[in-house]
Design goal:
Radius of gyration of chain A: 21 Å
Strand content of chain B: 25-35%
Oligomer: heterodimer
Shape of chain A: globular
Mean pLDDT of chain B: 95
Number of helices of chain B: 4
Helix content of chain A: 10-25%
Order of helices and strands of chain B: EEEHEEEEEHHEH
Helix content of chain B: 10-25%
Low-confidence stretches of chain B: none
Structural class of chain A: alpha+beta
Largest interface: A-B, 18 and 14 residues
Number of helices of chain A: 8
Structural class of chain B: alpha+beta
Distance between the termini of chain A: 49 Å
Largest sheet of chain A: 6 strands, mixed
Number of strands of chain A: 19
Amino acid sequence: MSEKANPPALLRTALAERHEALGARMVPFSGWLMPIQYEGVVSEHLHTRSAAGLFDLSHMGRLQITGPDAEALIQRATTNDAARLQPGAIQYSLMCNAQGGVREDLLVYRFERGWWLVVNASNREKVIRVLEELRSEQQLQADVRDGTFEFLLLGLQGPSSKDVLRPFVDDDLEDLAYYHARQDRISLPGGVPGQEVIISRTGYTGEDGFEVMAPVLLAGALWDVLLADQRVRPVGLGARDTLRLEAGMALYGHELTDEITPYEARLGRVVRVDKGPFVGREALAALKDQTPDRRLVGLSFGPGAVPRAGFGVWSDDVEVGEVASGTFSPTLRRPIATAYVRPDLAEAGCKLQVAIRDTRVPATVVSLPFVPHRTRPAATRS
Amino acid sequence: MSEGSRIPDDRRYTSEHEWARPDGDVVVVGISDFAQHELGDVVYVELPAVGGRVLVGQEFGVIESVKSASDLFSPLTGEVVETNAELSEHPELVNESPYDGGWMLRVRADDLQELDALMDAAAYRKLIEGE
């Protein structure tokens, strides 16, 4: 097996030149060249929690599912019950393998005229393949359209988001509940009025905020207009990661992998074994009432060295787990981590240690999130 | 960044981006402006104990940014007589003032002539422009 002489070129979102003009540090991320930071991870992070951070999320896969069997296909592929969604509602869900290991975490959006799945950039092609295989196997009439390159996805997160976005959106944002979306119209100064976009009240930060999916042609103008607001600063993937970890949110490849089950990851609430057949259902039904081999916990540290993914977790002289994600929390001003540990040690208050280089650094189990969420509660359960 | 990078003339530099500045009978050690910029926000600096020895070219500590940890390499051999206590509360001093407030060690050199082997400002600038 020889190395490819010419690896495929990195994908660029339609905003890449803007990021470069802003002085962003660009790095390869899941096959895309993305901004990791502009001014600095800590300042971007803190700005998001105090005002409004603007994110280019256009590397995320966005798949539109339509056709008479669209719902049936989504139900087969995912663990949560999509039938419970009203049009305009969104649910967090998982795709598992036949052993119940997590292949992907995603958002499922339902509209009158079809569905959207928002998936991790790293898993976009895998998800498409799984959907196409299931469709064929189950002989379902559904179209899977990859909208990733046609539509930009912008995130606007933070307490000022609503006030920033309000002047440009036709409908009242107050009415848009958390984990809900609608097709709305955006009007930009000097631009064509009333261009259609999808706005959702979702995010990966724990703050109130919105994600806007817009056709590429509209994208740059929308980015520019939002950034012109004094309250808004651009935020890169570095701060996206520190924000989501503070908010206790999972990242595929860290808290979720093919070898980890939803029950270990504390995501049993998005697995509905009674909803009907789906990939992994039998394995998950069997696992549901068993004590898992390990459990996801939050770990809190005193000021000092930073725990990182893969570092060992110890209980005195016994190794009892492994760090899933670790970073410095700009809000708490100390290191934080998530880890998988032996279930009997997964109680808040348990005193453990993490091996950081030559030292066993004390850590305390805490419940997630590290920083309370300030998202709006859902208007209705879905 | 290398064009805008500050490289004061009053000190010498290593290929690992540390600087060494003689000050009376000790040598002050830190990291360069280029290095702090590459690292991003510094969140923790692990330094040796006062009284410990540092060896030229050997790792003396670790500097952590939000994303990763990097080793710090000593520009000289000697005894650590002081470390910058401000850095435990304010690691961001390394970013804000890498040549002054962000200093890391004061070392009593075994042999001050070791510094002659390090790069001067002009040579260091050439190095980082190539990076």
